[in-house]
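INTERNAL AUDIT FORM
Audit reference: QA-55
Scope: verify that the stored structure record matches its stored sequence.
Auditor: D.O.
Record contents follow.
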Amino acid sequence: MTLIRKLAIEGQDVLGTVQGFLRSLLNHEEIAAVLAPRRLFRKSVVMPALITDPDGLRDVDPLAPAFFLNAATLAARLTRRPSGRKMAIVLRPCEIRAFIELVKFRQGTMDDILLIGLDCLGAYPNTVYRRLAADPESATLKFFFAALSGAAEAFEGAALAPACRVCEHPFPDGADIALNFIGLSPLDYLLVQGQTPKAEAYLKHPEFQPAEIPASRDEAVSALISARVQARDAMIRQTHEATDTPEKLSDYLSGCVNCYNCRNACPICYCRECVFCTDAFDREPFQYLQRAERSGAVKLPMDTVMYHLTRLTHMSTSCVGCGQCSNACPNDIPVMELFRATAHFTQKAFGYEAGRSVSEPPPLSVFQEQEFTDIVGLKRRSGGAPSGGNAS
C-alpha cells in the first residue's frame, strides 16, 4: 500500500527542502551514505557524488536541469557485491528504469539500497547547461519555476534535450520513495510517496504529515504524458522516414567516427568486452584495397552502420530513452532518435516496457510457447498439437 505524506516547503526553498529530506535520511541509523547529483565547486557541472558527511549535502542539486551521465551504471557498480552498509540512491526516472534493467541482468541489486526519485522536469544538453549555469543554484531555481509554469522551452532561450522532450515517463514510479511537485499549486509542500514496504521506516517522522494526491496533480500528469506521447510519435515518424532504406540509414549515420562514446555513455551497454574492441573487425591493408576496387570507393572508417545495428540488436529491448548516446556524440548524430524509435517497436512487439518492473523478465530471457504465433504461423488445434508444422 502506498504511503502518501507531505513535506512543507518554507519560503519556496524547494531545493533546500529536498536537501533537508536527504539529510534526514543520512542521519538515519541505517543509511551510511547518499548517492546524489552534486554541483562541483566553482564549476557549472553536476555529477553524482557518494556522500557520508551531512555537510556535503549542501551542494546536492537533484533539481538541476543537468544530466552529464546516467547514474544507473554507478548504482549498479555500488550494489553488484554486498557492501555491508545501506545507501540511499537518488536517481532520475530514466535512471531508475535503466537500473531496474541492470538488476534484471544481475549487474546490481536493490537489496541494500533505498531508491529515491523525483518528478523530472527535463535537462539541457551538457554544453547548453554549462553556458546557462554561471550561477548554478540560481539557474536551477529559475529553470524549476519556469518549467513548472510550462515555460521550460523558453528559459534563457534554450531547448531541453531531445530525449526529455519525448519522455513519457517523467515520474519516479520505480522508486522506494518518490518526491512529487508537478501539479501541486500553490507549491507549499512536496508530495512524498512511499511506494514500497522499504519506505515505511523512513516516513514516520512528525515532519511528514498525512496527505492525499490532489486532483490538480492527476490532471497535470495526464496532460504532460499526453503531450510527450504526441511529441514521441512525431519523432518516431520523422526518424522512420529518415532511415527506412539502407541508403538513408547510411546517410543518417555518415558522421560516425567509431569513437564509441554512445556505447560508453549507454547504461544498458554493460558487456565487459565489446566485439568492436576485439580483432573481429580488423582488416589487412590489402582487404581495404580489395573493397575499394570492387566498388570504386569505400567510406572510412568502415563498419559504422554495422556498429549501430549491432548495438540496436543487443539493447533495443532494454533502451529507456535517456538520451545519453546523443549527449555523448561529438558530431551531433541524432543517435537517441534512432534507438528510441527502434526500441519503441521492439518493446511493443514483445509487450514489454523497459524498467517497468524488476519482476518482469526481459524479452528473449525466457521461452514462451505462444510467442509470435501470428508471425511464425503456428496456431494450436483443439487437440493440443500446433497446426502449420510438424507435430511429431
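Auditor finding: record pair retrieved intact. The longest strand covers residues 31-39.
Action required: none
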